[in-house]
């Protein structure tokens, strides 16, 4: 995608995310900084902060676990050895299981709301215990019919593309 196509796609995906009733109803949202082909989710941070939402961002921990730290638009940012941006240790820790909604990163999703992650299993371990709303953003051109999956892989409840919202089949 060209930079202008990507920017336009990001704008549509992020607008559609912000329009979800689940976002409006959420007090605490767990987000992430997009990297690679993922949308520039950082564009969500300021509008959600202005709307009074609490934003948590992930930090990878040893042993394949994650923690989420509160992001209020300030604080130092570090880079994990995998390349993703993370809030530094001065940002307060949040209880991720008390969050209302998690925006889950992925290289792509499929039509059953299964994600193809980066292979570390961080989100699969977290989502196996999380009971709130889960949402993924996927460019329509990256949406797959079926992603390869394993028994431990976790689906999200909604996948948003530029054209549609796909809901996980409850069966």
List the helices and strands and how they pair.
Elements: H1 3-18, H2 21-25, E1 28-30, H3 42-50, E2 54-61, E3 65-70, E4 77-79, E5 85-87, E6 93-94, E7 101-104, E8 108-109, E9 115-116, H4 122-127, E10 133-137, E11 158-160, E12 165-167
Parallel strand pairs: 1-2, 1-7, 7-10, 10-11
Antiparallel strand pairs: 2-3, 3-6, 4-5, 8-9, 11-12
* Biggest β-sheet description: 8 strands, mixed
* Separation, N- and C-terminal Cα atoms: 35 Å
Query: SS-based structural class?
Result: alpha/beta
Helical stretch tally: 4
Shape, principal axes of CA atoms: globular
Instruction: Give the % helix.
Output: 10-25%
Strand content: 25-35%
Mean pLDDT: 90
Order of helices and strands: HHEHEEEEEEEEHEEE
Side by side, the strands of the main sheet go: 6-3-2-1-7-10-11-12
How many beta strands in the DSSP annotation?
A: 12
Characterization of this structure:
The structure is a single chain. This protein is an alpha/beta fold. It is 21% helix and 26% strand. The strands form three sheets. The chain has an eight-stranded mixed β-sheet. It has a two-stranded antiparallel sheet with strand order 4-5. α3 links the parallel β1 (28-30) and β2 (54-61). The longest helix is centred in the first third of the chain and has 16 residues, at 3-18.
Question: What does this entry show, briefly?
Answer:
21% of the residues lie in helices and 26% in strands. It is α/β, with parallel strands linked by helices and 171 residues long.
Short descriptors:
26% strand, eight-stranded mixed β-sheet, alpha/beta, globular, 171 residues
């Amino acid at each position: 995608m060209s930079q202008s196509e990507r920017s336009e796609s990001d704008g549509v995906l992020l607008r559609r995310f912000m329009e979800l009733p689940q976002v409006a109803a959420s007090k605490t949202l767990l987000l992430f900084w997009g990297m690679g082909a993922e949308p520039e989710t950082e564009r969500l941070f300021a509008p959600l902060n202005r709307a009074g939402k609490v934003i948590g961002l992930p930090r990878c921990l040893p042993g394949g676990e994650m923690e989420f730290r509160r992001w209020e638009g300030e604080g130092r940012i570090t880079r994990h050895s995998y390349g993703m941006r993370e809030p530094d240790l001065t940002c307060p820790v949040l209880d991720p299981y008390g969050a209302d909604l998690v925006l889950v990163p992925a290289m792509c999703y499929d039509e059953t709301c299964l994600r193809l992650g980066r292979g570390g299993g961080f989100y699969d371990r977290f989502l196996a215990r999380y009971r709130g709303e889960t949402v993924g953003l996927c460019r329509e051109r990256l949406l797959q019919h079926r992603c390869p999956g394993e028994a431990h892989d976790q689906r999200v409840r909604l996948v948003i593309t530029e054209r549609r919202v796909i809901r996980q089949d409850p069966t």
